[in-house]
Design a protein that fits this description.
Helix 1 crosses helix 3 and helix 5 packs across helix 6. The chain contains seven helices and eleven strands. It has a single domain, classed as Alpha-Beta Complex (Ribosomal Protein L22, Chain A), CATH 3.90.470. The strands form three sheets. A five-stranded antiparallel beta sheet has the order 7-11-10-9-8. Strand 3 and strand 4 form a beta hairpin. About 30% of the residues lie in helices and about 30% in strands. The chain is globular, with a radius of gyration of 18 Å. The chain has about 260 residues and is of the alpha+beta class. The protein binds coenzyme A (COA). Coenzyme A (COA) binds next to helix 3, strand 5 and helix 6.
């Protein structure tokens, strides 16, 4: 089987503030893509020693790439919240459940959520007070029936109403929203999929917003730009500000479109 395509180099990052409960929650997001050779060359300047130790010789190239591209996205986002720090001052190490745990000198309240898809990665740095989760997926036609099996008829119907068009893309949006929720919860996909059920969807330009049957305290937003889908889950009380063209992270939608043109 031939390996999945790797997009060329791509790097976007931007700070944002969610608003809710009378407070602002400062965050930053980054969407990146790079070939493995570029990431390996940058690794000595990018990784703290404890992170470099994760890159053992036994790791397959695909895992080396995902580890490196994920940390590039995470550090691009974290660096916007702590511009005084060098990239090697920021450590992102796996917790007991595989979740990324951030350590940065002088900061105690910042975490990151990240996802990779082949040679691309998406990350959001966020305050612990505002738990978030992200996902990034690349559509693979062979996964269509598996994606179908992981949705209920009610979800598929709601998605059809919110987003007419390609079914594969719709199913991937649903999957991606649930995976992003599972990361915000720190469970990952160890819980029954039905627990992560989406029960309400509304169309927004380029994607959908979502609510969850069993986690009403969270809200999701997902965008599609074939072959990619990206999702963000955040507390329902913390809203994207009504600036820059609407209450959704329009930058993410636009970046995803630009990434998709790279293949
Ligand atoms: C979390 C999970 C859904 C990620 O799915 P995936 O398709 O493999 O990968 P993605 O690219 O979307 O995301 C990977 C990132 O999710 C993050 N992640 C992993 N487990 C996580 C968790 N429990 N909570 C939040 N984030 C998690 C990591 O940062 C990981 O990237 P990294 O390993 O390079 O740091 C999946 O790994 C999972 O279900 N894990 C369950 C926990 C588990 O089985 N752990 C094994 C050790 S106990």
């Amino acid at each position: 089987m031939s390996p999945p395509p790797t997009p060329g180099s791509f790097r976007r990052a931007s700070a944002f503030a969610l608003e809710g409960d009378g407070r602002n929650f400062d965050g930053a997001m980054a969407l990146v893509a790079a070939p493995l050779a570029e990431l390996e060359a940058a690794a000595p300047g990018d990784l703290a020693p404890e992170e470099a130790a994760l890159l053992t010789e036994r790791l397959a190239p695909a895992r080396r790439q995902s580890l490196l591209i994920g940390r590039r996205a995470a550090k691009d986002a974290l660096g916007l919240l702590a511009p005084e720090l060098g990239r090697r001052d920021i450590r992102i190490l796996p917790g007991l459940f595989g979740q990324p745990v951030v350590a940065m000198p002088g900061r105690t309240n910042v975490q990151v959520t990240l996802a990779h898809a082949d040679g691309a990665a998406f990350a959001i740095a966020h305050p612990e007070a505002c738990p978030m989760g992200v996902d990034l997926e690349r559509f693979v036609p062979a996964h269509l029936s598996a994606l179908q099996e992981q949705t209920t008829a009610r979800e598929r119907e709601a998605m059809r109403a919110a987003m007419p068009g390609d079914e594969g893309q719709r199913l991937l949006l649903l999957w991606s929203l649930k995976e992003a929720l599972s990361k915000a919860l720190r469970t990952g996909l160890t819980v029954p999929f039905t627990l992560l059920e989406v029960n309400h969807l509304s169309p927004v330009p380029g994607g959908v917003t979502a609510q969850f049957a069993n986690f009403a305290q969270y809200e999701g937003i997902a965008f599609a730009a074939a072959p990619f889908v990206a999702a963000v889950v955040h507390p329902r009380l913390a809203l994207w500000p009504e600036r820059d063209g609407g209450a959704v992270p329009v930058k993410l939608r636009d970046w995803l479109g630009a990434l998709a043109t790279l293949g």
